[in-house]
């Protein structure tokens, strides 16, 4: 039986909920230039373009057409019934893990549902789209809220907690991530270095495929329910 499990999720876990991934065919990075909508420089260059990008993604998330899928729910079952330590680290900025019921969750790339004061760094749950009138309440004069998203070139959140969890886990599972963006893409190396078992659940072999000891190829929503059952039954991955 495992003692401490770390799970890393990426856009692929939300794909079956209807959210676009980044690098699949027709993904977000086919429709937008990363440097225009996911960098501080892009935001400084064209604030309205960046606000439209995040307003559109937040609108889709709140449209009522997007809901957690079986993969999110399987992780909630794991959190509820696993007697050891579990930490779910997500690269996703959607709130589907929360809506499914996950509590031990760390958004390392920020959250679509929140804005941040550029001056105080205080975060605010968004009540309206980003725009010139959507300002903080912590400064005088009030400052225009920015997306609470980690852009390329910015430091992800929770890295100390993440490294501590990776140093002590005995199972690391990456779900629905292409393994192309660091530091998340390097978490498997840290887990391997500290002797954890490492498994990948992905539609296609991701960039760091060879670093994982075990591979479950297919849809997360179809694979995770059984994988969680096996873990809760005390089975060691790859044992049969
Ligand atoms: N089940 C499992 N895996 C899936 C599914 C699915 N139903 N659908 C797609 N995938 C896989 C794809 O094969 C791909 O490997 O999910 C992965 C998604 O990869 P990306 O689109 O690159 O998303 P992600 O890895 O989360 O991107 C990491 O890059 O742009 C930045 O900040 C952004 O957090 C994001 C980071």
TrEMBL record:
- Catalytic activity, EC: 2.3.1.286
Q: Which residues hold substrate?
A: 54, 57
The Deacetylase sirtuin-type domain covers 1-234
Q: Return one GO MF term.
A: zinc ion binding
Q: What are the names of the required cofactors?
A: Zn(2+)
Q: What is its main location?
A: cytoplasm
> Which Gene3D superfamilies is this protein grouped with?
SIR2/SIRT2 'Small Domain (3.30.1600.10), TPP-binding domain (3.40.50.1220)
Cofactor: bound how, per the entry note?
Binds 1 zinc ion per subunit.
Spell out the family assignment given in the record's similarity comment: Belongs to the sirtuin family. Class III subfamily.
Q: What does this protein do?
A: NAD-dependent lysine deacetylase and desuccinylase that specifically removes acetyl and succinyl groups on target proteins. Modulates the activities of several proteins which are inactive in their acylated form.
Could you identify this protein by its name?
Answer: NAD-dependent protein deacylase
Species of origin? Shewanella psychromarinicola
């Amino acid at each position: 039986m495992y003692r401490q499990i770390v799970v890393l999720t990426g856009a692929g876990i939300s794909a079956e909920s209807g959210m676009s991934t980044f690098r699949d065919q027709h993904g977000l990075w086919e429709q937008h230039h990363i440097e225009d909508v996911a960098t501080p420089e892009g935001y400084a260059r064209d604030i309205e373009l960046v606000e439209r990008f995040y307003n559109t993604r937040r609108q889709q998330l709140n449209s009522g057409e997007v809901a957690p899928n079986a993969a999110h729910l399987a992780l909630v079952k794991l959190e509820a019934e696993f007697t050891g330590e579990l930490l779910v680290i997500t690269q996703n900025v959607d709130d589907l893990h929360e809506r499914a019921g996950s509590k031990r969750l760390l958004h390392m790339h920020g959250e679509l549902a929140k804005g941040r004061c550029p001056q105080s760094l205080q975060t605010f749950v968004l009540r309206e789209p980003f725009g010139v009138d959507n300002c903080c309440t912590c400064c005088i004069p009030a400052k225009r809220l920015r997306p609470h998203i980690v852009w390329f070139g910015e430091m992800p959140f929770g890295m100390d907690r993440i490294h501590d969890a990776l140093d002590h886990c005995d199972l690391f599972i990456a779900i629905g991530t292409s393994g192309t963006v660091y530091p998340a893409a390097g978490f498997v190396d840290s887990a391997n270095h500290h002797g954890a078992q490492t498994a990948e659940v992905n539609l296609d072999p991701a960039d760091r495929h060879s670093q994982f000891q075990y591979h479950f190829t297919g849809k997360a929503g179809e694979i995770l329910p059984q994988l969680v059952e096996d873990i809760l039954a005390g089975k060691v991955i790859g044992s049969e």
